[in-house]
Amino acid sequence: MIYIYNEIENDPGLDKLKFLIEKALKGNSALIIKRGFKHLSFTNFENLMQNKLGFFHDKRHYTLNSELTISNWWSVRYNPEKDTSYTYSKTTQPLHIDNAWFSDPAELNLFCLEKQAVRGGENTFYPLDRLEEDLANEEPGLLNDLQKTEVLIQKGDGKYFNKTTILKNDKIFWNFYRTEKSDSKVKVMCEEFFKFLNKKEKTSSVDVFRCETGDAFCFHDQKILHGRLKFEASKKDDRILHQSMWKIKYNA
What we know:
Elements: E1 2-5, H1 15-26, E2 30-33, H2 36-39, H3 42-52, E3 56-58, E4 60-62, E5 68-70, E6 74-77, E7 93-96, E8 108-115, E9 123-127, H4 128-138, H5 140-148, E10 150-153, E11 162-165, E12 167-168, E13 171-172, H6 184-200, E14 207-209, E15 216-220, E16 224-228, E17 240-247
Parallel strand pairs: 1-2
Antiparallel strand pairs: 2-15, 3-17, 4-5, 6-17, 7-16, 8-15, 8-17, 9-14, 9-16, 10-11, 12-13
Helix pairs in contact: 4-5
């Protein structure tokens, strides 16, 4: 399910937006904030997340070279000179989560779309509850493996990694390319799941929504797989998206 918030001009205190963010997090739904980035700056969004919602800003990001960097926002922008990475490419980005390699991940993903492509670039969302229902009906053996087979997910060689089952405690930890596959059982499981997701992406199980320039959107990173459809682009920065990550509660 996707919630669409279309009232930012009539919500000066952002109380309704705050309510919908909390509702989306609890309901496994993505929230589209129409014209959010036209009316709210990075600082405005940070104040909303920190001061009104009480979230903690997780500033850990990894560069193209898998080096850890600390930054308030991370830019996902088309660059033909770096298009071997999904961050900089115009190809379809498979369903995944953004913080799979952290054992203490931020729950909320917030995106601001500075510039949409002329065509394409739709976002894809696959809620976990729907995914688990589909697996139970179509691939119960794969569902069992995803719940019981431990994997190692890591980006770079630093201190952060996640040793977990892919499905755990009503959450999902999934990044095909960053999951260690030296074990043959893990390799087969990951490849089967990747194929399953690719198949389901073409069905009504996966929500598809095209945001426009100036929109924003957010969702629970461990409860919704997300991706992006291919888009038209010919030069650098033909599509620009900014991301920040938030932990739902401050650390004690």
